[in-house]
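Chapter review: from sequence to fold.
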Amino acid sequence: VAAFYSAESSQDQNKAVKSWNSYVVVFGRNTTEFCSITGDVNNIYTSQQGMISQCGVIGTHAVTEYGETFVCIGNPAGSELGVYVIAPSQYQMISDITINDTLNGYKESELESSVIESVVIDNDELIYLHLPNETFMYSTAAKAWTQLKTGYESENYRGIDIINNPELGFTIGDSVTNNVGLLDMRVSSQYGDPIEFELYTQFLQIGNGHTPTILGQLSFNAVTGYENFAKNLWISTTSDGVTFGNEVLIPYSEKYNYTNKSLFNNLGMAMGNVGFKVRGQITSGLNISNFTVNGL
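The token string follows.
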């Protein structure tokens, strides 16, 4: 076995080494090289120049396998930090502006211990991005990012190191308590404690943007009667997606009350765009859909 591997095309700091098919992949800070066997005992591996990717990684645990490629926290030389998919001779950013702004809000030294991992659940390959103060998840099927939190006080998500155990199912570690739990899709609680959620609707275009329109009622479909904890929801409105008005409390669900209808009456006037935020706390699954706004 060779004594060590290094990225030769760009004399940057080596961050990680992984295997891919019959290649040894060396991840530098600015480049990624794919090395193949030479048959020479004095120089066992050599870099394949045509497979070099001009994108590197930020830390040892900031890169993982993703399908037939790799996904990492990193960047090409001179570009902003992001989440990139790296393949031979190519790379592609998959992070959005929120992820990029969060990453670039840190010093590089603060991100070196970040962890990225991927797991396939229900035929959807999920990427978990563990940063010092935030955790994000990317759904390959939906091509969308979600910020994960634990509890109902905006605490950073504590789950890490997801492993598919053939006997138990998916196990997941707790970065705070060092417990190992089971990932159960039937509940939304964390060791029995309720979890806070926030949902954001799409924006509605109201009128022509110059004349106020009176809105009557907001309604939505929900599967009620199963959740014993989430008896109420808090709903607020926004015109820009940044600032929200005062929250209004509406009944959501009572145990065994399967005919409950959630309504938000007397919305007031709107002009231009209007969107809604729905917030609550639950211990089991949640189903809310078909948001509808009626005018007067």
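Two observations follow directly from the output. The chain has a mean pLDDT of 83. The helical segments are 97-103, 108-111.
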